[in-house]
Design brief:
- The chain is of the alpha+beta class and 480 residues long.
- The chain has 20 helices and 13 strands.
- The protein has a five-stranded antiparallel sheet with strand order 1-2-3-6-5, sandwiched between helices. Strands 4-10-9-7 form a four-stranded mixed sheet. A two-stranded antiparallel ribbon has the order 8-11.
- α2 crosses α3.
- The longest helix has 27 residues.
- The chain is globular, with a radius of gyration of 23 Å.
């Protein structure tokens, strides 16, 4: 029925061949070096061939393999430039496209899920997929009332494929670790596996998307398509035109990059504050820049179009206030208080004892974007942070190995890192502190009396900052 390879033996064989291919190319590279070829040229060749095999396999298999590749793609900016070059093209291919399933399979699914007269629901239906992703593909159509719509059709057998792929990838996660310096790939795969059942349930996705669509209706900064109809393995939403974020990353002007980055940062924090849901799949394929109303084509008038709500974290009270409070205290240099908060939340296990000042020194470079009025994200900055944490000789590496990531924070951590990765790909200059002050619980504006520090004693400066943040939220919700 489908071209998606579903049999466990076939999928396992394809994925199992990856580490063998890595090892074989390494041996071949050693042989060429003995033969006298320059090491740098050989390394580049090996990296490019490895990238081609890895992402061709992931894209072909779709399912969990492709989802893992998409999750990795947003961390491309953390790779050293001499490695990033060969990998970049292969990584970004996974953000927008994958091999489509046959037309006959699409029609069969639509008939099974929408009824034998499914074509009567549409004025037009394009058999060519407009986009293909890890568990389904999207077709452009015109609904019977004349609205342009996106029809998302789930690949038959996608659930089995997801679980099989992620289980197999988990077995050789250690070999994939070098792709992203400073990041443990195994927890990423485990977390992706935990989200499989939710992402396969299009009813949950429809509820999450509609909640966002209603909350952001008429918003000057963010637009989310309304849900038109949802069925098992089929989701129909309003069509959203716009420039894919991947195109802005590749060819956008600096003004376009900055606007996209500011809106992305705003949505990261405001979306959760306003809906109680955290959009947990922030790769560029899920975002569009949409032209402003009244013919405003300048980047300042653009809005951020947000797609794909299959993976969300349900946070009815918003992001934990501890995040904002710890961030504020870290910027204020309050090492002891920050350390106590991290211990209480489980970031430092009871059996571990760390130096509070060393912990502060570890955190400060990471949260540099929140220190100033605006910050320019770049691949160079991202690589610097990754290298600092990944170098076994550095104190940051030794301390990082002893820090624990509580399960409640795992998805928040991944989404934040992924968003930062996209901001670095954009090279955007962002007023990050503005968004933190407006939307992040526990974070406060610097008081006028202490411009270089934060009021951390709960006094007037902190209360004033909270009021400013609340005002910012009210103004944004009113469309100010």
């Amino acid at each position: 029925m489908s071209d998606l390879p579903r049999k466990a033996v076939v999928r396992t064989a394809k994925l199992a061949a990856l580490p063998l291919g890595f090892a074989g190319r390494t041996a071949l590279g050693i042989g060429k070096r003995i033969g006298g070829r320059p090491a740098e040229i050989i390394a580049n060749e090996l990296q490019q061939r490895t990238a081609e095999q890895l992402f061709a396999t992931l894209g072909q298999l779709k399912g969990g393999a492709m989802k893992f590749g998409q999750a990795l793609s947003v961390f491309e900016s953390a790779l050293p430039e001499e490695i990033a070059g060969p990998y970049r093209a292969a990584l970004t291919k996974l953000q927008e496209a994958a091999p489509p399933m046959p037309t006959r399979t699409v029609h069969t699914v639509l008939e099974e899920r929408l009824g034998a007269d499914w074509r009567d629901l549409f004025r037009e239906f394009d058999d060519r997929p407009a986009a293909a992703a890890s568990i389904g593909q999207v077709h452009r159509a015109v609904w019977h009332d004349g609205r342009p719509v996106a029809v998302k059709v789930q690949y038959p057998g996608a659930g089995e494929a997801l679980l099989s792929d992620l289980a197999q990838l988990g077995r050789f996660a250690r070999l994939l670790g070098p792709l992203i310096p400073g990041m443990d790939v195994k927890p990423l795969i485990s977390e992706l596996r935990d989200r499989v059942s939710e992402e396969l349930d299009y009813s949950l996705e429809a509820k999450a998307q509609q909640a966002h669509a209603e909350e952001f209706a008429g918003d000057p900064d963010v637009v989310v398509p309304q849900v038109v109809r949802q069925g098992d393995q089929v989701l129909i939403t309003e069509w959203l035109d716009g420039v894919p974020l991947s195109e802005v990353i590749a060819d956008g002007s600096q003004a376009e990059r900055d606007r996209a980055g500011q809106l992305l940062a705003r949505f990261l924090f405001s979306g959760t504050a306003r809906t109680g849901l955290l959009h947990a799949d922030p790769h560029p394929g899920n975002f569009r820049l949409v032209a402003g109303e009244a013919g405003d084509d300048s980047p300042e008038g653009w809005r951020l179009g947000v797609l794909d709500f299959g993976t969300v974290d349900r946070l009815p009270d918003g992001l934990p206030p501890t995040i904002g409070s710890a961030l504020r205290m870290t910027l204020d240099g309050n090492a002891e208080t920050v350390y106590e908060m991290l211990c209480e939340e489980g970031f430092v296990k009871p059996t571990i004892e760390l130096d509070p000042q060393a912990m502060l020194d570890y955190l400060l470079p990471i949260i540099e974007p929140a220190r100033s009025e605006e910050f320019t994200f770049s691949r160079g900055w991202m690589r610097q942070q990754a290298a600092r944490i990944a170098d076994p000789r550095s104190p940051a590496y030794q301390l990082g190995k002893r820090i624990n990531l509580p399960p409640a924070y795992l998805l928040i951590h991944r989404v934040t890192l992924s968003t930062i990765g996209v901001l670095c790909q954009l090279g955007a200059t962002v007023r990050m502190r503005d968004e933190l002050e407006a939307w992040l619980p526990g974070f406060a504006t610097r008081s006028a009396e202490a411009p270089e520090g934060l009021s951390g004693d709960g006094g007037p400066g902190e209360r004033e900052g909270t009021e400013v943040g609340d005002l910012g939220r009210r103004e944004r919700r009113a469309g100010a």
